[in-house]
């Protein structure tokens, strides 16, 4: 659980390389480490970022370096851009031989020579989101049908990606470049000063205009996702698995809910087919897995199932009498020649039963 904002210590439980926002105490710790280890730091100072990340504890090497260089290094201006900075950036970009291939580190260095200290990330985002003359604002030229289509498609494919807005602006601008109708529509709606520039959209403008739409699609996608079964459900049984030298051991638990003191891993077992469940939904992933394995190995379905049976049998020797045999007693396998392609289309098999060739009528079923 994330520590409450304003806490004075960095949680020891924080995962190294966490993607969460930097907390104030993390930034203060990084600044303290850099000031202590590298007093008088400059951009030419050689820094042991591995040692720095080890002292920070909750961030990896790349994150520590980027946070220092982009936000915390001395003299960096994090405030609003001035008109003078905007004009200088416009001049630097206009002087580039190829605007399609921009060395943003060099652009930031050119600004710094005029005593304007901005990070490479700041320079790139300010240009692409605000002052690039090729930007076509949505309030001037509304999004076209093709742009809206790729936006919806992207959100549905990656509804909860941390890079969703990066993907959106990239895909929208790709549509503009490759769709002649979209290009014409955007050029015709723009003033004469930008007719010679390939039109683009800006990420900040896109986010401001589409936040509600994206949120709605995300909710729709979340509603379509199947909910996991409750741990109290009769369809959710627990089996405790752990590895011992040379074999896989399985022991049934009588309790429906696992406890913290149980063995190393507690995993849900595929339930036996119930009338209230959709058998096709259960079978789909298993059928796909078997067919993909068959194609990958260049084998027939019969050969694939036989190989699967042999692999399971070879990996599990006879267990001691105090444990349930994962192969012979718990998952009783029929002969390979009884498993045919028709079994893959049977509606009375659960995925786990399908993969080991069991029928619901067999005496040893998966509970």
TrEMBL record:
Domain (HTH myb-type) ranges: 73-135
GO cellular component, one term: nucleus
Entries under SMART domains matching the protein: SANT (SM00717)
Transmembrane domains' residue ranges: none
Stretches assigned to the Myb-like domain: 19-72, 73-131
Gene Ontology molecular function, alphabetical: DNA-binding transcription factor activity, RNA polymerase II-specific; RNA polymerase II cis-regulatory region sequence-specific DNA binding
Pfam families: Myb_DNA-bind_6 (PF13921)
PANTHER family from the UniProt entry: MYB PROTEIN-RELATED
Name this polypeptide is given: Myb-like domain-containing protein
The organism of origin for this protein: Saprolegnia diclina (strain VS20)
